Amino acid sequence: MMRLNFSSRPGMFSFLIGRFPVLAVLLACMLLPCLNSDAQQWTWQLSPERYQEMSMFERNQYDKAVDLLKQNAFKGAATEFEKFQTQFADSKFISHVLFMRGYCMQQNKTRGEAIKLYNEVMDYFGQKVEDAAPALYFMGVANIENGDIKQGLKCMQEMIDDPDYSKHPLAAGALRAVGDNCWRNKERDKAVDFWKRATAVEFWKTNQPEANASLNNAITYYILKKDYAGYEAWRVDKKDPENVENRYWVAEQAWNMAWNGFAGDWGGEFTFAKQKEKGESMKAFWNWFKTQRTYYEKKDPKGGIWTYYDRAINFVTYRYGDKDERTKLVEEALAYIKKLEDKADANNKLAWISERLRDAGVFDRAIFVADQMTDRPFAEYKKYEVYARQSDWEKAIGRLKDIEGMPNDNWKVQAGRERARLYREVLGKYDEAIKLYQAINLPPGTLWDIQDCYKRWGKLDEALRQLTEIENSFPDQASNAAWYKAAYLDEAGDREKAIAQARRIMKVYPKSPASSNAHQLLEKLGVKTGGGVVDGADGDIN
């Protein structure tokens, strides 16, 4: 079944993002964990019960239209639904078929015609909620997509004001749209009221995407308002305030929104002139989030505290930036790790903390933490990353050489390739890089690396010879290697050889992406590519 999901409706999302800057960040966030994930979501198709009520002949015609719609053949599907109307004019399903015609026309971007059909459903079958409510909702969406936002929102408002239509699953989308409009108009208290209504239990069961989006938006309201008492009053289970599962998700959902929102200044909420206010908002969130630690511990007595440290250290390191808070958290986390019996798990967690300290610029401490690891190659690699971040290449390369001398083949190769990459991409020591790649000898990857060294070194002939070796030895890489030769020759200004190589590619690898690239190169060079273009293109360019 095709399911309604606004992520597949670019018109609606473009409208929202363009007009509600603070929501642009939220729309980019991952969906928060939802309730009733296995519940039946709204779909345009007839329910099994209604479908069973159709006659055999009605089903036959209906299925033709549905099959075309599933293939995105919207115009053809609309025609088949229209045939249904003609053949079964007295059918009890005409209201649904009319809606489906409009829906197909809307998908076909013939929105004016779709709106007419939706109006027809409303005029003649307004009492059939299962068909009229979707017609009203999509009439609103179609108007918004057409740029008539006022009329579109009027449809949405009409839907949520009607006692019957407001219970339809699509009413969750209408509530969100109206709430978003209130937010745009700086009526934030009104906006959150609409969003809360869209998170009602029945909408989680029948229109999860819209309920989830409204939940995200409402959480944003409380974070920006720094009203965590109000947030808890809304989200915490009133019958069981210490329900651990509930409290855990209250914390997780707020963290997720704060993590994503503060990263982008909430889509423009905190301008350059409002960075002080942003700092105050982050501090308020952090002070509240610290109080949620106990629910992480109770949710998972064995490992929940690490989930808390993950969230807390990340937020303090990459968002809030409070050094004292970070130091305190890291020391607590190190004490926790020290008690772990699983050494591999402990090493991974120590590496993670070292990375956070490295990113925060606390380099000495990052090295200290890496030294606590019992996996020596792993530890040295973490130390290498710290030195590399400081551009201390002598120490960085020293750590890599140490790893290469250890009796661990996997780490030896990784360290060797990384050292070669530094020579090639950072230090310009191409001869040393090539020697390393030759010693590692893992073709075709190392051959690609070697040709890149020669290219950067300015030794075009050697680079071309390496590409020829790749082309001749690795069939799955051949067309790509051939194309690189053409591109290098063109870049070097050797027009004649570049043309010859491009022609050869089109002849030898006619169905490859390289052939398309070669065609474009020839056009750029002013060479006609019609009939006979590849004549005389059998020779190779070495």
How far apart lie the N and C ends? 55 Å
The number of helices is 31
Please state the average pLDDT score: 91
**Percent of sequence in beta strands:** under 5%
Secondary-structure-based class equals mainly alpha
CATH uppermost class of the domain at 452-542: Mainly Alpha
The oligomeric status of these chains comes to single chain
Per the CATH scheme, the topology name of the domain at 452-542 is Serine Threonine Protein Phosphatase 5, Tetratricopeptide repeat
CATH architecture of the domain at 452-542: Alpha Horseshoe
Helical content class: over 70%
Biggest pleated-sheet summary: none
Uncertain stretches: 1-39, 531-538
Principal-axes geometry comes out as: flat
Q: Gyration radius, to the nearest Å?
A: 31 Å
User: Count the strands?
Assistant: 0
Short description, anyone?
The protein is an all-alpha fold and 542 residues long.
Q: Your description of this structure?
A:
By secondary structure, this protein is an all-alpha fold. It has a domain at 452-542: Serine Threonine Protein Phosphatase 5, Tetratricopeptide repeat, CATH 1.25.40. Helix content is 74%, strand content 0%. It contains 31 helices and no strands. Residues 1-39 and 531-538 have low confidence and may be disordered.
What features would you highlight for this structure?
542 residues; mainly alpha; 31 helices; Serine Threonine Protein Phosphatase 5, Tetratricopeptide repeat
